[in-house]
Amino acid sequence: MASASIFSDDHDHNNKTLVFLFLFGVTLSICFLNSSASAEIQCLRHPVKADRSLSFLVVGDWGRRGLYNQSELALQMGIVGEKLDIDFVISTGDNFYEDGLTDVNDPAFYESFSNIYTAPSLHKQWYNVLGNHDYRGDVLAQLSPDLREKDKRWLCLRSFILHAEFVEFFFVDTTPFVDAYFTHPKDHTYDWRGVLPRENYLSKLSKDLNSALRHSTAKWKIVVGHHTIKSAGHHGITQELVSQLLPILEENNVDFYVNGHDHCLEHIIDSKNQIQFLTSGGGSKAWRGDIKWWNPEELKLYYDGQGFMSMEITEEVANFSYYDISGNILHKWSLSKKLDSSV
Predict the structure, then answer these.
(1) Given the DSSP bridges, would you call strands 307-313 and 54-59 parallel, antiparallel or unpaired?
(2) What is the average pLDDT value for the chain, to the nearest integer?
(3) Where is the Calcineurin-like phosphoesterase domain (predicted)?
(4) Which of 9, 63, 196, 260 is the S-S candidate for 92 at Cβ 3.0 to 4.6 Å?
């Protein structure tokens, strides 16, 4: 059993990650959150465009070997990705169904990822988090640099920061927060290597995330996780995240929480704190008609079909859109921020 670590499971993985990112053109650095050497978080840096803009796609819950319209959706992602000249793709987890990868040589990696997202516009960096289905397989396989040798687009870490000048993304490993996976796993086996003891893992993750958000000077703060915090979908509200993660987001003025888990597209604006909750979990199998009541003043979109999301962001404006399987725009929204008058 590996010792608890939020970001990697051995030094070989870290060393291979450094080499890969250097070759791919993505910069990795270590951000020290305090004087303790144990409190370090991996930070990736992605350049913005010459016009100081950034664009990307978000898709979640997708890895089904092209089934459940995954291939058709990938086609539309490629078209939209080319139109927007995207810089990268974010995956909100549940990357491989039903039970993650068996090992680094599992053909599902090609059958659900490399052979599906073939459009030139999608041959950009993919930043991935783990979902609960990924934890049912070999977690270390998805974290392994060996997968990046098979397809250089792939980058999956437990939790990390992506810095892009005026915006910072905080990717959070949400699966270990959920009690039921530990207390009532049913017939499933979860790979908790690198997580146990759980209490220490969650305490350190929460502390490091809070510190990183507090010290961030980015104009925009976006937190990405697999599990829902607020959702009218099948899984609905994740109480463990409401009690343990949401206060951190509120305290640090996070703009967006982006997630998957519920197999739908969804946009909720919290009336209390104005955080935008963006669900993009329609990458393959969707759950038709599976919706709970939600305050219509907060619920701006609920779509129970396959789809994905795009975001175009500058220092002043963040525009995001949701697309269905035919590439039709289902919903679009814009959020503006004033530039500092001293700039």
Answers:
(1) antiparallel
(2) 90
(3) 55-264
(4) 260
Q: Do residues 320 and 84 lie in contact, with contact meaning Cβ atoms separated by under 8 Å?
A: no
Q: Quote the number of domains for the chain.
A: 1
14 in a domain, yes or no?
no
Domain region containing 205: 43-336
User: What is the H or E stretch that residue 89 is in?
Assistant: strand 88-91
Known binding-site positions for Fe cation? 61, 94, 97, 132, 226, 261, 263
> How far is it, in rounded angstroms, from Cα 6 to Cα 310?
28
274 CB contacts (<8 Å, ≥6 apart)? none
By mean pLDDT, which of 17-21, 35-39, 123-127, 204-208 is the weakest?
A: 35-39
CATH number for the domain harbouring residue 105:
3.60.21.10
25 located within any domain: no
- Annotated binding site: which residue ranges? 61, 94, 97, 132, 226, 261, 263
CA 103, CA 343: separation in Å to the nearest integer? 50
For the entire predicted model, the pTM comes to 0.91
CA distance 310 to 113: 19
- The catalytic site residues sit at 235
